[in-house]
Design brief:
There is one protein chain. The chain has 3 helices and 5 strands; from the N terminus they run H-E-E-E-H-E-H-E. It is of the alpha/beta class. Strand 1 and strand 2 form a beta hairpin. Helix 2 packs across helix 3 (106-119). It starts with 24 loop residues before the first helix and ends in a 5-residue tail after the last strand. It holds the Pfam family ExbD. It is a single-pass membrane protein; Single-pass type II membrane protein. One of its GO terms (cellular component) is plasma membrane.
Length: 134
């Protein structure tokens, strides 16, 4: 006679749950939907917009501005002129481009800027060369 088990063993506590892999496909779908949304709502600038320079290769460049130079010693020169004559000539030539060294004393620069304002210079562009004194 064959032996028949009356009951099968059962586990009432299944133990720790198995680690399930997170589905990545829905996350990829969301990223692509966001990418498509931002591409559809973005406004791109016209390549021929007014923000571009109107200068073309055929046009001649404008005249070069002369440079007012302030030496670290305090000497001011504009072309062949020196001192007050240089300041007056630079102020009368239009926007002034002032070039100085990083070692120039700030008080000398302030005096020169005051002299340029009194001479009638409306705009002064400051260009420094070298490293500033620490």
């Amino acid at each position: 006679m064959a032996r028949v088990p009356l009951s099968t063993p059962r586990r009432f506590w299944p133990g720790p749950p198995k680690a399930r892999a997170e589905p990545v496909v829905p996350m990829i779908n969301v990223v692509f939907l966001l990418l498509i949304f931002f591409l559809m709502t973005a406004q791109f600038a016209d390549p021929g917009s007014a923000g571009r320079s109107k200068l073309s290769v055929e046009e001649a460049p404008g005249p070069m501005r002369s440079v007012l130079i302030l030496a670290p010693s305090g000497l001011v020169s504009f072309g062949t002129l020196r001192g007050e004559a240089a300041i007056t000539a630079a102020a009368g030539a239009g926007p002034v481009r002032l070039q100085t060294d990083g070692q120039t004393d700030a008080a000398a620069l302030a005096r020169l800027l005051t002299s340029l304002a009194q001479a009638g210079a409306g705009r002064v562009d400051l260009v420094t060369t070298g490293k500033a004194a620490q």
